[in-house]
Amino acid sequence: MSATLKSLRALADPTRLRIMALLERDELSVNELQEITRLGQSRISTHLGLLQEAGLLQSRREGKRTFYKLNQNADEVAREFIQLAVRGAKETHEHALDQLNLKRVLARRDEQAQVYFNQVAGRFDRVYGPGRSWQALGNLLLRILPPLVVADLGSGEGLVSELLARRCKKVIAVDNSERIVAFGAAKAKKNGLKNLEFRLGDLEAPPIDPQSVDLVILSQALHHAAVPARAIASAHKILRAGGQIMILDLVQHHFEKARELYGDRWLGFAESDLQGWLEETGFKKIEISVVAREEQPPHIQTFLAAALK
Ligand SMILES: C[S@@+](CC[C@H](N)C(=O)[O-])C[C@H]1O[C@@H](n2cnc3c(N)ncnc32)[C@H](O)[C@@H]1O
Description:
Low-confidence stretches: none
Order of helices and strands: HHEHHEEHHHEHEHEEHEHHEE
Bound molecules: S-adenosylmethionine
Largest sheet: 7 strands, mixed
Strand order of the largest sheet: 6-5-4-7-8-10-9
Strand content: 15-25%
Shape: elongated
Helix content: 40-55%
Number of strands: 10
């Protein structure tokens, strides 16, 4: 049977015209169509099958449900039939009621989509949401960065370095643990990050040329330094004029076990100490703020200190 005859046959039924009109603006599932038209599921499915076979509808599966809509890729002839069908449906006596029911079903669909967000409003930031991770958000924020040369001092295996390397011109990750450096370098290689170089060294005297980097990062590393002021002075030395230092570390706390559990030398820092070290070294535009507070005891807080050379 030719496509034209198939279309004519498919549209020679007022119920199928009603279905076409219901799909004029929105895609609908079989259940939704059933609810609107009050027809049985098998009848609806038969009608939908015929319309799809004639090239007037298209469908997509989502989990267990199939959604139908007017065929967006219809050729010119089929498009004319679709328009004719929608116009014809408006003359059927069920049209007004169908449109009312359609509105109700669509409104309920919107409500259902909002139920979850209404429930979690006020604590949304603290509940799990599929796909919402700090790593993903970090990647998003990194897109804002210009292509910098970065030194990540006390880098660990490269949690921060790897993220930065996806965007920055070059990242030099310095750590004084041989095993961590070997592991980080192997991981960077495996991930194809050619611009991420791991170097074994001390963050108080990093093996990096003077005035060669745009940004120095010390993420949870300064509290491992024997003399934090020396680490800050070294950061100043390797920065280009106008370069920036960013320190993420802990606000002074009393969780003594951190020494034994995590090998911490310092139980965080007082803001005034940090401000003093940065000023004495010659950093300008110093900004220090608390950026995170743990909900569980001992309620460790994290500060971010940023300053310019
Ligand atoms: C808490 S981890 C932080 C890792 C990473 N910066 C992050 O934010 O995930 C501290 C790292 O500093 C390294 N480290 C400790 N003392 C250091 C020193 N004097 N010089 C260089 N690295 C040091 C440790 O080996 C460890 O990998």
